[in-house]
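Entry for the shared binder. Reason: the reviewer on the internal report wants the predicted structure included alongside the sequence.
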Amino acid sequence: MKKIVSWIYHNLLPLSLKKVMVGTILRLHDHPSLQFKERLIKAARNGDYKKVDKIIHSDYFFCKNTLEKSKSIELAESFLCYIDTGKEDVNKIIKLAWWTEPEPGNMGDWLSPYVLSKIGKMRISFVDMQSQLDAPHFFCIGSIGKFTQCKSIVLGTGISSMDATLAQDAKYVFVRGPKTRERVIASGGNCPKRYGDPACVMPLLYQPVKKVINNKKLLLVRHFTHRNLTLQLPDSCDETSILMSSPVKIEAFIDKLHEYECVITSAMHCFILCQAYGIPCSMVTFTGAGETVHGDGVKYSDYMLGMDLPIVEVHMLPTDLKDYDFSNIVTNHRISKEKMTEVYSMIENELSISE
């Protein structure tokens, strides 16, 4: 498609129209709202509090879309939370690659800096996995194995499809599950038979202060790619968003999960949190969702095999759920304390070695 568009542009469009198109693109690039986001996030990733504050309050970067602006600000504040100099040793920094979008962040991806900052008690510095990384850095939570590089140190990362190629020279401390390990070996790398998704350690890092019982029995948490699907929910069901990045909001999200008898989710790391905290849950997708969640589905069985859990299917649900019987699909499998401790220890040991 790109080749066709390029051919049409170079061979069919008159020069006058080309100039109009180029001018429009340049104006869009220079639009204050785009500059606001780019400069704000860059300053936040660098830990420049003063510059972030200046950009937020600058009249030049006024954005009419206040919702988008607030998402960018929330994302920036989350970066600052993890690079905060209030950590025990301000001179020690964990360089970490993780997926940061969509704004204001996907909870599952942002568990990565949460977990490493809590265990390592060090500042977290974001590195872009899609750039050439010449210094050692960590990969942790997420199906981002295909982005690993020769200097990567891998702590529980997984894959989204069985055709993924991973960096053969990366250091694989442990991976999400045996299927990820299979792809590491096929890619020419070395990987021990040590498995686990680091999100499983969350109960060792955070416990809800008080369990509040909600009048409604069910909670629905969609994968962020499912957020625009039109669903009809039963009266007994609430819904909450997976889009967040700050440690405070992640902890509030965990509190929310504990308010319900069971959780129905199409977001894998919500499912993992439920199994870690012992909340009955079900992993689902929806009719009409297509292939909006990236990959061939290997990540689900890879995770369960890696955590020594029974493999359960991802249930296909209709969009009309008003009369749906969820009791037939909810399971109560729980990650063992032994497995949590094992994964915690592997992370802690590697962070101490890499200081």
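Summary line for the report: The chain has three domains: 2-81, 87-198+343-353, 201-336.
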